[in-house]
TrEMBL record:
Pathway: Glycan metabolism. It is found in: Membrane. The chain crosses the membrane at residues 30-50. InterPro entries: FucosylTrfase_pln (IPR024709), GDP-Fuc_O-FucTrfase (IPR019378). GO terms for biological process: fucose metabolic process. It comes from Spinacia oleracea. This is O-fucosyltransferase family protein. Belongs to the glycosyltransferase GT106 family. GO terms for cellular component: chloroplast; cytoplasm; membrane. It is a single-pass type II membrane protein. It comes from the Eukaryota. One of its GO terms (molecular function) is glycosyltransferase activity. It holds the Pfam family O-FucT.
């Protein structure tokens, strides 16, 4: 305390003593502020989480802004603005469990989004099959970018990560579990499925393969299936990153062919095809077929199926066909498949014809693949990315992966996919091997058989009342490829030499 010249007292704050009591007060104030901030942010996060679950319309935009503020960096461009949410009154909740391998499940997800759209349902993020031959424990978010999936379709369908608690089984709620009829159009879903939601509120489709028709759907629904397939179903960052690494390693050495060599144990056992196998191997495949009760066909005539073009080509047959199609001996051939039955012994003829035959484990370090081991769907996702990016795609069987990759390559500008004419070429191979057909005539016959089988624009084949025999929508989604339905664009470049 000092006395000024005018007689008033002046306090010198720099000389006021600061004791232990004052320090404790400051510490207490600081502690209260920190705790209050933590509590406020915790409440905010919980509010957003519960909001997305119970009222996604109200909180979706707020949640996006919140995550954007939390992650924005001056060096990273802001994400594109979200599409406006489609405003509709939901008729109920749709749960789906997709069965089969990765690409069968992928097509099913596209179909189920479309069903949810035209029935005005709320779709729960799909569950993936964990009980099939592959026994893959991967969930949807282990394979696909779930946030991108939800956000990119918000203007079409309301998608939530999980059912509200009141609809969980542990609270006593029993959803209706059913399998929709295969190859059904929107009339079936409107007339037979939609009324079920009035009573049950939640339907669980426990089988989703081929439950929507190839043809006859309104154009807007066909294009929605494409939008889900080509835009919304994006793989997780770790899958995308390793897939791009594989692609860059291949491209650095020149053009490459992705060969989907479907000569795997499960395919051979399921189809009953054992051409080229030993007696012991044929018996092993048969025993495996009987071990799976849901594989309905048990006694199968392998040679009869092969003559009908219903068997995957063997590695030896494939080598001859690629040579006849004049593939350069030194071209890179990436084998996009799992373990080949018979392993390296069955690959010997292919490697002799094409020394640059490569598998993913020959390109990547073991550490790169370790996280994907025992997850067949994630490994298949890597092969899918490489196959779509390849200069030429050659499937030896028209399974789900072959057809979906073919469709993606059509979507990307009708990139060349050589669709082997198995029924024709197996007979030609036999004639050549028994000496009836010379190599020159064999080459001419194989080339002629594939003149119009390179993935060029073509209308999808429609067979009324026989949907299983029609061309598959996802192999040739013509409604999404052409401005008109004539698809008269020119075909792509010729085979690599």
């Amino acid at each position: 305390m000092e006395v000024r010249s005018d007689g008033l007292q002046q306090v010198r704050y720099d000389k006021v003593p600061v004791g232990p009591m004052f320090e404790r007060t400051r510490l207490k104030v600081w502690f209260i502020r920190v705790c209050s901030s933590i509590l406020l942010w915790t409440c905010l996060v919980q509010l957003v989480a519960f909001g997305e679950l119970w009222n996604p319309h109200f909180f979706a935009g707020f949640s996006h802004r919140f995550s954007y503020i939390a992650t924005i960096s001056p060096n990273v461009p802001p994400p594109p603005p979200l599409l406006p949410i489609r405003n509709y009154t939901s008729n109920g909740f749709l749960r789906v469990t997709c069965n089969g391998g990765l690409n069968q499940m992928r097509a099913a997800i596209c179909d189920m989004v479309t069903v949810a759209r035209f029935l005005n349902l709320t779709l729960v993020v799909p569950e993936l099959d964990k009980t099939s031959f592959w026994a893959d424990t991967s969930d949807f978010e282990d394979i696909f970018d779930v946030k991108h999936f939800i956000d990119s379709l918000r203007d079409e369908v309301r998608i939530i990560r999980r059912l509200p608690k009141k609809y969980n089984r542990k609270y006593g709620f029993q959803p209706l579990v059913m399998q929709p009829i295969s190859w059904s159009n929107e009339k079936y879903y409107f007339e037979q499925v939609l009324p079920l939601f009035e009573k049950h509120k939640v339907l669980h489709f426990n089988k989703t393969d081929a439950r929507l028709a190839n043809n006859g759907l309104p154009l807007e629904f066909q294009r929605l299936r494409c939008r889900v397939n080509f835009q919304a179903l994006k793989f997780t960052p770790k899958i995308e990153a390793l897939g791009q690494k594989l692609i860059h390693l291949l491209q650095a050495k020149g053009p490459f062919v992705a060969l989907h060599l479907r000569y795997e144990m499960d395919m051979l056992a399921f189809s009953g095809c054992n051409h080229g196998c030993t007696k012991e191997e044929a018996e092993e495949l048969k025993q495996m077929r009987y071990a799976y009760p849901w594989w309905r066909d048990k006694e199968i005539n392998s040679e009869e199926k092969r003559s009908q073009g219903l068997c995957p080509l063997t590695p030896e047959e494939t080598a001859l066909i690629l040579q006849a199609l004049r593939f350069d001996k030194n071209v890179q051939i990436y084998i996009a498949s799992g373990e080949i039955y018979g392993s390296e012994r069955r690959l010997a003829a292919l490697r002799a014809a094409f020394p640059n035959t490569i598998k993913k484990d020959m390109l990547l370090d073991p550490d790169d693949l370790r996280q994907f081991r025992n997850h067949s769907s994630q490994m298949a996702a890597l092969d899918f990315l490489v196959s779509v990016a390849s200069n030429i795609f050659v499937p030896t069987y028209d399974g789900n992966m072959a057809r979906l990759v073919e469709g993606h390559r059509r979507y990307l500008g009708f990139k060349k996919s050589i669709l082997l004419y198995r029924k024709r070429v197996t007979g030609l191979v036999d004639l050549h091997l028994n000496g009836t057909l010379s190599w020159e005539n064999f080459v001419d016959a194989v080339t002629e058989a594939h003149v119009n089988r390179s993935g060029q624009p073509i209308l999808r084949k429609v067979i009324p009342d026989k949907p299983k025999e029609e061309d598959y929508f996802y192999a040739n989604p013509q409604e999404c490829l052409c401005q008109d339905l004539n698809c008269n664009a020119a075909t792509n470049t010729s085979v690599l030499h």
